[in-house]
Structure formats: C-alpha cells, structure tokens
Input
Amino acid sequence: MFPNDRYSHVKLGTIRSEWSNMSQGCPLGSSFGLLLWNLFQNDMTLLVKDTNLFMYADDHQLYVTGSDYNITSSRLQYQVKLAMSGYRDNFLLANTEKFQCLTINLRNIDPDKQTEALQIEDQIISNTFQITLLGVEIDDKLNFTSHISNICIKASQKVITIIIIIIIIIIIISEGIQLTKGGFQWSPPK
Output
C-alpha cells in the first residue's frame, strides 16, 4: 500500500546514506502525495477560527489583531495551541525552531510589550523586529527597506557580472583570441 513500506535516502554529491523506513510524513513527488497533504492540512482552517490563517504548501502563518497586547497575545497563544493539537492529531510535526513572532504596533499601543516573548508549549518564541515570509522581509513598521535593499544588492551583483562578461568578450574579440577545446589561442588581429 502507498503510505506503508516507504523508504528514502539522502544523496549529497557522490555520498549516499543508507535507506531508512519512513514512518511519518507526506510522500513527495506524486499526485497522491499532494492530495494527501491537502487532506492533512486543510482541517487546520476548522480548528483555528479566531485568527487569520494563511497556508502556503507547508508554511502556515497565524495572524491576530487587537488593540490590547495582553489580550492579543493570549488569543494568539491559544490559537497556536489549537494548531499544534491539530498537527499532533494528524501525525504532523511542527518545526517549532522556525517559529517567529513579529508585533506590528504602528499606533504605539503598549510599547513596553513590543519585545515580549511568547511561550508556545515548551518553546519560547522571541519577538523580533523583522521576519521573512515566503522570501519577503517584513519589519515591525511595515516598510520593506531591508527587502528592497537586498534585492538591489543581488541585482547589482548580476549587473556587474554581466558587465565583466561583456568586457571579456570585447577583449577576446579585439585581441584576436580564439576559444578552442584546449583553451585559448591567440592570433594577431588582421
């Protein structure tokens, strides 16, 4: 049967691990795997009702809004507790080390609470001033300067690489250098 007797191994370069039995997890790489994953995770919307829940593949984000930090924090902790219960009931394992907490407090309500950590079961989730969601960096002021700066840095690195390649091509053409299978061959320009 499909979910039973599944084995996997890890390959890194030429090194391969031993095959091991997979007793948990959703099989990847098959149409049935996607359907099975959706069946497992879509019940989460029935459990977590007093918050905004966004699900993208295996990424889940819970958002709670409110005008009082203590009430909002309690609501969030309760909803996460429900979500964790849903994971366990469906034999899923949440990676609590990847949990992040961001307090967006544009009206400066309860400013002293801005850096308070949340406790989700046995895990302490420290409050941060910036998180990354699906590759987008968001900060507690809802401006994207860090994200835009990083995109500009990456783009400029690619532009510099293209310029260097163009300069090398110009030098090769102007100097009469020919590329061969064995490397470069120089012949004086005519």
Residues 149-186 form one domain.
